[in-house]
Amino acid sequence: MSFYRCTAVSLKTTALDFKGNREKILAAIEANGNSSLILFPELCISGYGCEDTFYFPWVWEQSWKSLLEIAKATSGKTVIIGLPFFQSPYLFNVSAVLQNGQILGLVPKQNLAQTGVHYENRWFTKGEESRNYAITPDGSEVPFGSLLFESPDFNFGIEICEDSWVQTRPGQYLVEAGADLILSPGASHFALGKQEIRKKMFSESSRNSSTAILYANLDGNESGRLIFEGGCMGIVDGNVKQEGPKLHFTDFESTHLDLDSTQLRSNRARNFRSSGTREFRSRGKGLQRIEIHPLKSQKDFNNGVQVSKSDLFQDFTRATSLGLFDYLIKSKTKGYTLSLSGGADSAACALLVKAGILFSGKELGPKYIESLGLDPKNLLFTLFQGTENNSEQTKNSAKQLSEELGFTHAEITVDSEVKSMLEKISSVKGLIPNWKEHNLALQNIQARVRSPLIWLLANLNGHLLLSTGNRSEASVGYTTMDGDSSGSVAPLTGVSKEFLLSWLKNVYEGKDLILPKINALEGILNSKPTAELKPLSEKQEDEKDLMPYSLLQKLERNFVFLGKSPDNLLESQEWSDQKEAEEGKKKFLKLFSASQWKRERLPPSFHLDEYGLDPKSSFRFPILSDINF
């Protein structure tokens, strides 16, 4: 019998940080000295999110130089690692197979991700354009294309990320050709519930082919918008044997799949059934077969099952706090400043910064933040900017929340600034604005006057400014441009208000795994969401200005994610009050069309759910439109 330890590494990378990425890769190789095979994620040498710099020759050149350095560390082991590779006239997304200091072959990605947040076909060409060999920068030839790597008792093939998600997977003909193990290096972004989809997909693929699959993924906020969730997996005969940590704050985590090659082949002989199609048989026979040195075997192994447990709320806490933590560290700033209003959204932002501090202390050590020259107590500065339209309830909730979280908090009033601006513009217009005729302008000036003050505070703190808007508000433009929309990053724009309120309730009830029970949330959750921009006597409520948030979420999802026709946007069974539903539909369509220009100008946000509205990474919509049947 031959036993092999196959290791998938989830890795934190930074776009274009060749030195930093290389050092983490080399550290992971050293840490896994007993592994026979080590799989790294897609494009981890350069970073996945290099965007249009993928066109630059120096990016390919630096990637190749890093590859040669990494190859020197592969004595006695096989390492698979991703990088961009140029073979004139095309640029490819490839995985390089390294063994004993040599580059054995380059496998290009066959299917490019081009939906949702991905635009790979902007930069890369499908692997079908590759030749049987590549000329490397030093002039040597390397096998290039669909490759099967063979040794006397262990064969493996590679399908890169999107290749594993399409209907006709490269793995299907690799298995037909004799692969015992399919390697799937990925750069698969986080979305709530997506890991469960991956498990089902890989499990079914493994069961159908009676083979093993090893999946590696990036982790963390790599380049600003996308958060990768790690969660490497090892699957054998349809069963998830190992699942690694998700959304970890560490530089890398290793997940081991220990394989008995004799047992693998015995199971395949017993259970494997050919696809029966000429296509797979011919493609399998047409593969280049690369003979490799036998993988380093080991005497024994531990095949215990380790599967992580999570839920949507916990995944949200981890993903968003990790996104904020990485954003802070990689931007090389001192912390965040937040206009804390006493409402749900700004409270969620404060909680997520705190969660990042707690997670980093738990996973990286209690002194990690200090080692970066940062003060944990000053990573967030909160400011309440009150007007005569703010209640004592929201003012007190903001103060109590910040105190419970241990952050610095201050309070100011901005009525004099509002009054000064109104007086100046009144002299220009020759009128005094009033609530009956100038309602929107009087609301907006209160939000806008807060922006330069909170920006000034953020600049003096050396901080990034947090923008607090959620996806529900973004969809209908319920935000004041250059007011509450101001910020460096908008961590909540990827999820609905309905979800945020449920998550806050979960935290308040003490059910979050990292955040403690926060008493200040009681007052926030028991109050109706309000912008507090109208006189208190009017009892302004967001859902009165708009519609119930749950109705808004149904309309938004049906339109953006499901693509339902505007004239049939909501089924009758989806909302009990048909008059409210019809009025909500009309308002939603009008506001959504009119608000794209606002969405174009919102700060960078994280992709957190099954769909998003960020026009840079998720949903493109015309700035000028008129939905009219």
Mean pLDDT: 93
The main pleated sheet reads as: 7 strands, mixed
CATH topology of the largest domain: Nitrilase/N-carbamoyl-D-aminoacid amidohydrolase
Name given to the CATH homologous superfamily of the largest domain = Carbon-nitrogen hydrolase
CATH class of the largest domain: Alpha Beta
Oligomer type: single chain
Secondary structure: elements and pairs:
Layout: E1 3-11, H1 18-31, E2 37-39, H2 57-71, E3 78-87, E4 90-99, E5 102-108, E6 133-135, E7 141-143, E8 147-151, E9 154-158, H3 170-176, E10 181-186, H4 194-209, E11 212-217, E12 219-221, E13 227-229, E14 233-236, E15 239-243, E16 252-260, H5 261-271, H6 278-285, E17 288-291, H7 312-331, E18 336-339, H8 344-364, H9 368-371, E19 380-386, H10 392-405, E20 408-413, H11 415-429, H12 439-461, E21 464-465, H13 471-476, H14 497-508, H15 521-525, H16 542-545, H17 549-561, H18 578-594, H19 596-601
Task: Please characterize this protein's 3D structure.
The protein contains 19 helices and 21 strands. The strands form five sheets. It has a seven-stranded mixed β-sheet with strand order 15-14-11-10-9-8-17, covered by helices on one side. The chain has a six-stranded mixed β-sheet with strand order 5-4-3-2-1-16. The chain starts with a strand and ends in a 28-residue tail after the last helix. It has 629 residues and is of the alpha/beta class. The model has no long low-confidence stretch (mean pLDDT 93). The protein folds into two domains: 289 residues, Carbon-nitrogen hydrolase (Nitrilase/N-carbamoyl-D-aminoacid amidohydrolase, 4-Layer Sandwich); 231 residues, Rossmann fold, CATH 3.40.50.620. Helix 1 packs parallel to helix 2 and helix 3 crosses helix 6.
